[in-house]
Amino acid sequence: MYKVFFNEKLIVITHPDIITLFKSIFTFVKAAGGVVWRDDKLLFIFRNGKWDLPKGKADDGETIENTAIREVEEECGISNLQIVKKLSSTFHIYKSPHSKLPNEYIFKETVWFEMSYSGNDLGTPQSDEGITELRWLNRNELNLVLENTYENIKEIVGIYKKAP
Q: Which helix (H) or strand (E) holds 14?
């Protein structure tokens, strides 16, 4: 048995095994990303007009931890990241922008990891991925991100608004 509730911005579906249900309906993509700390600041990217966290699709045979590190390195131009801990996953559905899957809906799980970075390089945005800016922000600056980001990113960033 399932129930569906919706309004113009939100759909809530209750089902005993919603993940399995969505995997059977949509093309499933597993991804990973990072919430990166450096000197009490968090790293954000500005991609396609919104603040975001670095993340991307897992390659075949790649561990989810390696995916997270690789994607942060590629999208932000930094290296020598250390995973501190695994965070929760977020899920979202979107229409594929790729010509291989035209008009296909994707169900994407992103596994998040908190990471630390101790390097001196502030990073370089990966422009071919639509990233135009990198910014390291203090906790008291997180409203900048929360005002112009995706709902799933708000979930992850929200846990860092509070003092440690």
A: strand 11-14
Task: Check the CA dihedral 99-91-147-85 and report its sign.
Answer: negative
Sole residue written with tokens 């990166």: 36
- Check if the beta carbon of residue 67 is closer than 8 Å to that of residue 58: yes
Instruction: Give the start-to-end residue ranges of the domains of the chain.
Output: 29-158
What would the pLDDT profile of 132-151 be if each residue is shown by its tens digit?
Answer: 999 999 999 999 999 999 98
Reference 149, options 77, 56, 47, 80; nearest CA is 47
The CATH fold assigned to 29-158 is: Nucleoside Triphosphate Pyrophosphohydrolase (3.90.79)
- The closest alpha carbon to 54, from 134, 162, 148, belongs to 134
Pairing state between β 27-38 and 105-116: parallel
Give the Cα separation of 19 and 57 in Å (integer). 18
